[in-house]
Amino acid sequence: MIDIDIARRLRDAGLQWTPTDGDRFVIDNEQLRDDTFMLSSMVIELGHGRSGERLLRFNGTTEWALDSVEQQEALWVPREDQLRLALGDSFSALSRLADGGYEVTLIDAAGATREVPAPAAEDALAGALLIQLTA
User: Fold this and answer.
1) How many domains does the chain have?
2) pTM of the entire structure?
3) Which of 25, 46, 50, 88 is most open to solvent, judged by the fewest CB atoms within 10 Å of its CB?
4) What is the pLDDT along the chain (135 residues), one digit of tens a residue?
5) For residue 1, is it within any domain?
6) Which domain holds residue 130?
7) β-pair type (91-96, 74-76)
């Protein structure tokens, strides 16, 4: 799982989130930042509030009193497959390095390549996506 600081940077750079079952997120405040949640129609379902904003409703949470949060209060932590999909056609390859890390190869419209190394595959993909979103 990518670090929430990277997830925050991806969001701030423009990565859009349309919540769907299986998505991981955190509630980015001091008390809940260390707890990762997964959107699931059985536990946390997508709904809409009175103002039309998307809500993430917590069903059957007896251990603490959180009924729902607005989507803007949640920070999406994309998975490896979601990061790869977000890279689109610029994603060329994900390779394992000799030191055990990973490297993403991006290709731009002119055919130039750029390598983005990181210790984990998700980190390399997130770094590559951050480069793409901020370019």
Assistant:
1) 2
2) 0.82
3) 50
4) 999 999 999 999 999 999 988 899 999 888 888 889 888 766 677 888 888 888 887 766 544 556 678 888 899 999 999 999 999 999 999 999 999 999 999 999 899 999 999 999 999 999 999 999 998
5) no
6) 80-134
7) unpaired
